[in-house]
């Protein structure tokens, strides 16, 4: 059996109707997993689920919409995932918000709160919802998609960076809490990836050219290049890894 084999596993991924989340769902399905596709809009989720089912076989993916700011909606997501597939082996907290670009002093209170609620609190909610069954089984993997923003300062996405640093600490804390139960909790910290979510950072050709010049690999990343890390963290290949942050940024932070 491959170290990366996910046959028989169920992976729930938020924000998986596009970008890193969608690429991760496809990559997990490729390794034999059942995947739950979730984002705010049901039709967008269904499109991805249908694409995956057409490629890997009926019943591989299911679409369950949920707004990460709504605790009841997240509980429904978890409950319905269990009804569909019977269990959740790996939770990937990928969905996030960033409604503000600019200096910290200009951010409105409601924007700051939205970032903290959607990028930290919603992850806490989801993790506490899936952890009990993982404890019962004595195994499980929780993956939080953070950002290299959590490792560096920024004059443009400061609040987002604060939230992503908090996600790294959340993983460290929970790795301690859940380790005795066989549950691993890790983060992935991508650099600039070509997704719709990060479009404001890469659609400016001049800015991208400068970013590429200062990046050792001389380019920005693609969603599939993060998806491989999700497969790794979901599988037994990462069985002895917990509380860590995997930086995947083309060398930017070195």
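Sequence proposed for the structure above (254 residues):
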């Amino acid at each position: 059996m491959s170290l990366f084999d996910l046959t028989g596993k169920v992976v729930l991924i938020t924000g998986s109707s596009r970008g890193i989340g969608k690429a991760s769902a496809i990559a997990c399905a490729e390794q034999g997993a059942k995947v739950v596709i979730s984002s705010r809009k049901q039709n967008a989720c269904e499109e991805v689920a249908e694409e995956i089912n057409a490629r890997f076989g009926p019943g591989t993916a299911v679409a369950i919409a949920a707004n990460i700011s709504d605790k009841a909606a997240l509980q429904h997501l978890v409950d319905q995932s269990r009804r569909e597939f019977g269990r959740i082996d790996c939770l990937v907290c990928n969905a996030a918000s960033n409604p503000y670009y600019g200096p910290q002093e200009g951010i409105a209170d409601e924007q700051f709160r939205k970032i903290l609620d959607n990028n930290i609190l919603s992850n806490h909610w989801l993790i506490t919802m899936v952890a009990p069954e993982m404890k019962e089984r004595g195994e499980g993997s929780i993956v939080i998609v953070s950002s290299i923003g959590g490792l560096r300062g920024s004059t443009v996405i400061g609040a987002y960076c604060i939230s992503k640093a908090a996600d790294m600490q959340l993983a460290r804390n929970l790795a301690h809490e859940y380790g005795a139960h066989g549950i691993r909790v890790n983060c992935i910290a991508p650099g600039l990836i070509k997704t719709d979510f990060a479009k404001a950072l890469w659609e400016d050709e001049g800015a991208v050219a400068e970013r590429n010049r200062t990046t050792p690999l001389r380019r920005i990343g693609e969603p599939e290049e993060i998806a491989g890390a999700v497969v790794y963290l979901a599988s037994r290949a990462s069985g002895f890894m917990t509380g860590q942050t995997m930086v995947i940024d083309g060398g930017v932070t070195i």
